[in-house]
Write a structure and sequence with these properties.
The protein is mainly alpha-helical and 652 residues long. It contains 21 helices and 23 strands. The chain is globular. Residues 1-25, 48-70, 75-111 and 134-173 have low confidence and may be disordered. Its EC number is 3.2.1.-.
């Protein structure tokens, strides 16, 4: 009878005594039972021997216990088990043998071979990733919280080299040089450094008073101590001075002020549900351009989303028969129109021709092609129009696609159209050959028909009306000195030398318009005749409203030539601004530059923060800060990165 038959009988008859096991169990069963008992003893003994920490109540991680078991067993028979894998903290990445608790393990050649292949694969992938990141580096958003006096972002080393935290211990990790976007340079002469600090203090004075008396408003009345808004901003309070001044604050290192402005933009800049008529041109160059610049230099996606939000509200203005946008748009209803005074409702060359830098960049960083398509349509319309003597009139009818009044100017109504032809070519890393061709042809015609020289030897751009020259040059046209010189450096001979020389000559003339006034500030427009040169005649031409164009050309010419005269002229402008435009509540324009005690207009323009002070600061900084090799400035002086050259381009 087997054991399996005995046990049921036992349970059915509990009152009977069990039969002795020695009699019931056969030898095989006794052996089996013995093994079971022996296994239980070994298991208990192993628990105590291999896991001694359990006896003391110390709960160490299970991974340590496993390694202790391996170590004890290895002492008995290392040839019968797999090699103990190294602890992570003891891992050595140089191919040398690995150490554990003072002992050196015998190398497992199969393991070493696998490690070598894995290491080679990782190094190859890292190399490919590094090469890709040379053109597309996306540092973490730099939303600074450091003190106002901080001048260099912590995400870059003093020399502008970006280095990941994880790379600090890798000696052979190549360094990626990022564009310099803050500071100004400590290696400049003490005198230049002092002048730069003076400009920085001017920005502090202008910003602090705006923040005190007009925060959230578009502009400041520095004498009245209240907000101000021009018609171009409609009836809303959109914080134009905040958006216009943010990148200047960042470049100068005012990080607390930048952070406050950034937070205002995030919380309050919203056009949804707003019914107000805005200038398409001004909204683009100040708001879209300013936000895109902040996105480029910080990587903060909030700025990109706000720029997209605003640009999308401008799109209905392009819904014309030709695709040439209207000048004004109601952002609430989407209806648009042109100024009634503009040649029977025509669109203006300097407005519809000054969209490409912002819209092309916006398409690249959002993946939305509609903005670039709008620019391409404008380009095709104006290219196919016959141009009188190769010149571009200032007015174009958006219904018919034909030119309006035959008024041609490098100043008001025309100016930035030519600027954007050149800079669109540069922004594209010189791949937009259509823009280059249009720029060269336009300059050939303008230089051939409009460049004049006065009796006193001053070179200037005259205006043309219905085929006749008017010997007047706007302050706005003084940007052409820098534009021609910048373009010349990128063109081949003979245009190179010709354009650089013209740029210098025009900048000299514009300086003369400043130097020949009592205040040493230039008028809104100046004329040339047998009686006068580089001076205003009419009262409505004698005012100065903190404009930047002359200083812009000083900055560009300094960067290109390092001729000290441009810094000297810039410093003269600083002294004149401090003497005649500074008031307790900020900076104001003046109504007559030829008066020893000019009347002040009580307006601190937003472009004073965006352009005038930025160009002055850069004039007294080293060339690496917002380098002209890596950035182009939009017509509101907001720096935008050059594609394929500047890793801050951040295209998707």
């Amino acid at each position: 009878m087997g054991l399996e038959n005995i046990l049921p009988t036992y349970h059915r008859s509990p009152t009977k005594l069990p039969i002795s096991l020695n009699k019931l169990c056969r030898s095989k069963e006794r052996v089996l039972l013995g093994f079971v008992c022996f296994g239980l003893v070994i298991a208990c003994f192993g628990t105590v021997f291999f896991l001694p920490e359990l006896r003391t109540g110390i709960a160490l991680p299970s991974i340590n216990s496993v390694y202790k078991v391996y170590e004890h067993v290895q002492k008995v028979g290392p040839e019968f088990i797999l090699q103990l894998p190294p602890l992570a903290k003891d891992d050595v990445h140089d191919g040398k043998s690995q150490q554990h608790h003072g002992q050196i393990d015998k190398p497992d050649f199969h393991l070493l071979e696998d490690q070598a292949r894995l290491r080679a694969k990782i190094e190859t992938e890292e190399k490919l990733e590094l090469e890709q990141n040379q053109l597309k580096v996306l540092p973490k958003p730099m939303i600074p919280s450091s003190k106002s006096e901080a001048s260099v972002s912590r995400s870059t080393e003093p020399n502008g080299v970006f280095k990941k935290e994880s790379d600090k211990n890798i000696a052979d990790q190549p360094k990626i040089r990022l564009p310099k976007i803050q500071g100004g340079g400590d290696d400049v002469e003490p005198d230049i450094k002092t002048k730069r600090e003076t400009v920085r203090k001017m920005m502090k004075h202008a910003w602090d008073n705006y923040a005190t008396y007009a925060w959230g408003k578009n502009e400041l009345r520095p004498i009245s101590h209240k907000g101000h808004s021009a018609s171009i901003f409609g009836s809303g309070n959109f914080g134009a001075s905040i958006v216009d001044g943010l990148d200047t604050l960042y470049i100068m290192g005012f990080m607390d002020e930048f952070k406050r402005g950034r937070d205002w933009v995030e919380e309050h800049l919203n056009l949804t549900g707003v019914s107000s008529e805005l200038s398409v041109f001004e909204t683009n160059i100040r708001f879209v351009g300013g936000l895109l610049s902040c996105f480029a230099i910080t990587g903060d996606s909030m700025f990109r989303e706000k720029a997209l939000h605003i640009a999308e509200r401008l799109l209905p203005a392009f819904n014309t028969l030709t695709g040439i946008p209207h000048a004004l748009i109601n952002i609430g209803t989407g209806t648009s129109k042109n100024y009634a005074w503009a040649s029977s409702g025509s669109s203006i060359l300097s407005e519809f021709g000054t969209m490409s830098l912002e819209f092309n960049y916006l398409s690249d960083i959002t993946g939305n092609p509609v903005f670039r398509q709008k620019i391409e349509q404008i380009t095709q319309v104006i290219k196919k129009q016959e141009k009188p003597e190769g010149l571009y009139p200032n007015y174009l009818n958006p219904k018919t696609g034909r030119w309006g009044q035959q008024h041609i100017s490098m100043g008001a109504l025309g100016d930035s159209f030519y600027e954007y032809l050149l800079k669109s070519w540069l922004q594209s890393s010189k791949t937009d050959n259509e823009a280059r061709e249009m720029y060269v042809d336009a300059m050939d015609a303008a230089v051939g028909k409009l460049i004049q020289k006065s009796n006193g030897g001053l070179t200037y751009f005259a205006e043309m009306k219905f085929g006749r020259l008017e010997h007047k040059m706007d302050h706005l046209a003084c940007f052409t000195g820098g534009m021609l010189a910048l373009g010349g450096t990128h063109l081949e001979e003979p245009l190179k030398s010709k354009h650089i020389a013209l740029g210098k000559a025009i900048t000299h003339t514009c300086h003369e318009s400043y130097d020949r006034s009592n205040t040493k500030l230039g008028p809104e427009a100046f004329r040339f005749s047998d009686a006068i040169e580089a001076k205003a005649l009419k009262s409505n031409e004698k005012y100065y409203i903190l404009r930047p164009e002359v200083i812009e050309s000083y900055f560009v010419l300094w960067r290109l030539t390092h001729d000290v005269r441009y810094r000297q002229w810039g410093w003269e402008a600083v002294q004149a601004l401090e003497k005649h435009c500074r008031v307790d509540g900020g900076y104001t324009g003046i109504k007559n530059v030829y008066s020893d005690e000019p009347t002040q207009d009580d307006v601190q323009q937003s472009f004073f923060l965006a352009e005038t002070l930025k160009y002055l600061y850069l004039l007294f900084s080293d060339d690496e800060l917002i380098s002209l090799d890596e950035w182009v400035f939009n017509t509101e002086a907001h720096p935008l990165p050059i594609k394929k050259v500047n890793p801050f381009y951040r295209n998707i």
